[in-house]
Design goal:
The chain has 217 residues and is α/β, with parallel strands linked by helices. The protein contains six helices and nine strands. Bound molecules: 5-O-phosphono-beta-D-ribofuranosylamine.
């Protein structure tokens, strides 16, 4: 069983998807703790309700980023995790912090990276008129939202979408994509090869050959 620590800042739906998959035995891991930089994060109450240890490290209570990250690292290291999952964790982390967890920290991002790194991804995608949007799970490196990509899922952008409806569609894809990535990591199936990640024993029958093109109708 791999030891997992989940970092959140808000509602925690991606965290909940992992807790559900662990509970169902789909992921060979155990969630040791959920840590939030926001004491009021709704996800903390959800985790506590499932008897998961929760830690709140309010970044506003620390004089600078180093002090905050030292406290965060101490809370993470206390669990001796194999994998740290950033599941809607909304703080930028320093190079030293990221390097400390190289190869064992992953992030879910609501766009098809490398397009739309950063914030407001759905609003930007709609403003650009793209017809396909999605989400990415990647290893975390110093280059924010740019580490080796583990998994992606694409969703259509519909004529009547606004940022909210598009975000809801992407979020469903996020839950599945993150669960798959964490499951693969826990099963020892991920190999980082430079900028790429290879998934060992990838099932050809489940691997889409193309993202479906629209029908003329
Ligand atoms: C997700 O869209 C995640 O990709 C983004 O913030 C949102 C967090 O949602 N970075 P939740 O807290 O997992 O519900």
């Amino acid at each position: 069983m791999k030891r997992l620590v989940i970092l959140i800042s808000g509602r925690g739906s991606n965290m909940t998807a992992i807790l559900d998959a662990v509970g169902d035995g789909k992921i060979a891991g155990e969630v040791m703790a959920v840590i939030s930089n926001r004491p009021d994060a709704a996800g903390l109450a959800i985790a506590a309700g499932r008897a998961i240890a929760t830690v709140s490290i309010d970044h506003r209570a620390y004089p600078d980023r180093d002090a905050f990250e030292n406290a965060l690292a101490a809370a993470i290291d206390a669990q001796a995790p194999d994998l740290i999952i950033l599941a809607g964790f909304m703080r930028i982390l320093s190079e030293a912090f990221v390097d400390r967890y190289a190869g064992r920290m992953i992030n879910i991002h609501p766009s098809l990276l490398p397009t739309y790194p950063g914030l407001d991804t759905h609003t930007r995608a709609i403003a650009d008129g793209v017809r396909i949007h999605g989400c990415t799970v990647h290893f975390v490196t110093d280059d924010v939202d740019h580490g080796p990509i583990i998994a992606q899922a694409a969703v259509p952008v519909r004529n009547d979408d606004d940022a909210k409806t598009l975000a809801a569609r992407v979020l469903e894809a996020e839950h599945r994509t993150l669960v798959a990535a964490v499951g693969w990591f826990c099963a020892g199936r991920l190999v980082i090869d430079g900028a790429r990640v290879r998934v060992k024993n990838e099932r050809a029958d489940l691997r889409p050959q193309i993202v479906p093109a629209p029908d003329l109708s």
